[in-house]
Each structure stands twice: as structure tokens, then as C-alpha cells.
Amino acid sequence: MWFERLQNIDRRVIYTILLIVLITPMIKPIGIPLSVNSTTRQVYNLIENLDPEKDIVMMGMDYSVAGQADVHPQAVAVAKHLANRNIRNIMVSFVADGPMLAEKIIGILGDRVTYGQNIVNVGYLAGGESAIKKFIEAPGTTFINDHRGKPLANMPVMAGIKDINDITLILDFQTGSPGYQDFLRQLPAGGPLYAAGIVTVSVPNVMPYLNSGQLAGLLQGLRGGAEYEVLIEEPGEGAARMDAQSLGHVVIVAFIIVGNLAYFGSKRKGKTHGGGDKV
Amino acid sequence: MKRSVPLLIVFVIGTFLLASYFFNFTLPGTNITLKQGASTINNWGVIVTAFAVGLASINLLRIHGAKIINQRSGWVNSAILILTMFTFIIVGIYSRSNPDNESAAKLFSNLFNYAYSPFSATMYSMIAFYVASASYRAFRMRSLEATLLLSAAVLVMLGNAPIAEQVWAQFPVIGKWLLTVINTTGQRGIAIGVAIGGFATSLRILLGFDRGHLGQGD
Asked: In the CATH scheme, what architecture does the domain A38-235 have?
């Protein structure tokens, strides 16, 4: 009977336990040490090896607000790294939420960047993969004005961009579609390097593209953002939330174990009482 | 006629775009190359998609408007949705039309950051609680396959949690091996299968055998 009660525990108890476990480290941080994944270090090294005089980066702001808890810390950390190294950064969006999230990041960067000089938010282009194809064919002329309505033609950040090969690296932050597959289908062979920042649930799907070298680097969910903050030595939202995520994972594993113990316990009890062979 | 013309358009445009990936010659009687023509058609696609966003808004208005007018169950929610939609549309259009008006830009930014963003993130975050409940109630080792699946899931989760690494340093190693070796093998097979299936479906649509995109009827 005890096992049956354990199996059928009120779900509100489960929700409460999870809530307490997630909130407690946010109020009182633990500071669990964090090691850095090799795929995160690959992205870091890509940016460290860029030449501020001639290299240009395109940041794809293709994540929605729903997934920003996972991906936004990555985008902020990478944008900070690009700003610290004074690399030209063109922020493009192929999802509707993207431009506003880009503006949020530009606000966070503050005095590190000069809008129009080394960073610009060109805005949103509807069309999914068609829009990506259009941008890749003509990155310098697809957008006439930026997201703020200012003409792009006179901005130093856009100077010298004639085709996609003038962009050195594409860093795309995404939560779904359009995503890495759309970019990889449209990018020309020998063109710019492509790296992605994705939500944790998409990591298994992306692995074949990383192993084949089509992806030059990968930031994996909230942990990827936290690792990048460690690498640039500027802890932020990612690092702050890792304690909660870490404990949340452990609690879910504990739930799985306890649930299965209760299941096998009640199964064994049922055999003992019903079978009559064992007492 | 009603279905023949759309099917013909799909076939001509689709074949044109497909051919542009393999050939590049000048179209007879013009000085436009196949790739330039394909690029122009692609631009039309971008414009059509932009109009589709507007069409979706009109459709929302039609459905929820009818619900409000007929006072069907949940009409209050529909009224809030329509009001919110028009608030964002009006503020957004005014803000984009007057780029020098900082107050309008600030208002739209505040609506996005302090209303839309938290609500949207909250809805997505509730999934965590459903996963916790499912992990306790439904993830059972009822068979060998279920046991293998559950074991792999637990090991990958522990591999991703920094606290588990402090308990045993091999958790991340095992998790990474599962992702990069076992998972990648399976995902490659799935990706190839999806690509072949997608090619077959595309061919069926191009040739008119698959007419689901035309709506109901023959």
C-alpha cells in the first residue's frame, strides 16, 4: 500500500518540490564549478582568431522569446565578446521576435559599441529559408533601412559588403525554424564559417552536422551560455541560472528513480499477495 | 481549371527553381540567366510570406471576432486577444513610421520586454513542471528497450549537470559519448531518411500527385 501511495502521489507535491529546488539557488547561489565544453571553446576560439580590421560577423537573432531563457545568455555573451574585440557585428533576424531581442542586447552592450560603426540591427526578413537565401545572395543590399528606420548605405559597419564571402563568420542563435538546416542548405561551399547557439533539446539533432564539420562550433543551451560567460570572464544570467538548472536535473533524475522503485515495489508486493508462493 | 492552373504554376515554378541549381544559361529571347530568374522568383516568395503574416492576423480577427459577436464560451479571452493584437499593431506601425519619435519606440520596447516577453517565457517554462510530473509518473522501466532509453536519458542529463560532475568526473564523459557516438549514428540515419522522404514528397507535389496544399476536394 505504501508503494501504491508513493506511485500516486499528488502532482502538486511534485510541482512544489521542483519549485523549491529551482528557486532556492536563485535566492542563495551555491556557485557550483562549471567546466567548459569543447564545442563552446571552438566558438570562443573562432572569435578570438578574428581580425578586427577586416573580419565581419553576422549574428542571426533567430530565437523566440519563449526560448530566450536557454539561448539569450549565449547571444549576450557572444555579443560582449565581439564588442570587446571590436569586431563588426551585423544582427539579422529571420523570426519576428529577433529584432527586439537584438535591441535588448545592444542596450546591454552600452558604451562598448557605437551603433552604426561596429554594430547594427538590420531587422526582420519574413520568408524562412527563402529569406535566408535572399540575404545570402545579397547581404549588402537586401535591407535598405535598419530596424530603427535609419538608412544602411551610409553606415560604416556595412561598408565593403558585396557578397556573402565578405562575411567571415555566421553565428546563428535559434530555437527552431528557420534554423541550422536552412542555413547549411543555402550557404555556398567555401563560404563563411557557420556556428550555432541552440536550445538544449535540439542538441542531439545537431550532432551529425557538428561531427561532419558543417558546424564550426556549437553553444548548447543555457549551459553553453554559462560556459561562454566563464570564458570571457564576465559571469551573467547564464552562470546565475546554472545552479538552478543543475539541481533541477538532479531532482528529475531522483523522481525517475523513486517512481521506478515505487513501481517495482508495488509490482513485487502484488506478486507476493496474489501468487501465494512467497510470503 | 480550378485545380489545373495552380498545379501548372507549381510545376513550372518548381521545375524552374530546381533547374537553376544544376544549369545556368540565358533564357531564350532575354538577357536574364536562369539563376537571376530563380532569384527573382525567390524574392516573390519573401513578399508572399510577408503578406501571409498579415493574412494570419485577418484570420485571427475573423475567428475571434465571430466568437465575441456571438458571445460564445470564452469570448472574453478572444476580446483580450484582439485588443492586445491591435495595441501591438498600432504602436508598432506608429513607431516604425516615426523613427525619430523615441517615446513611441520606448513604448513598443516596454510592451515587448515587460508584457509579451515574460508571458511567452512563462508559458514555455511550464513545460518543466509537466516533465517533472511525467518523469515521476510515466517513465517506467517496463521493458528492456524502456530501460535502455531511460538509462541513456539519465546519463545524458547527469552529464549536463555541473553538480553531477562534482560527484563523479566520468558523468560528462559518458554523456558526451552517448551524444556523439550512439545518438549521432541514429540521427544520421534519420536525417538521410527524412531527406529521401522529403525529396519523394517534393517530386509528388511538383508532378501533381500530392494535392494536399490545394485544400479539400479532388
From this structure: 3-Layer(aba) Sandwich (3.40)
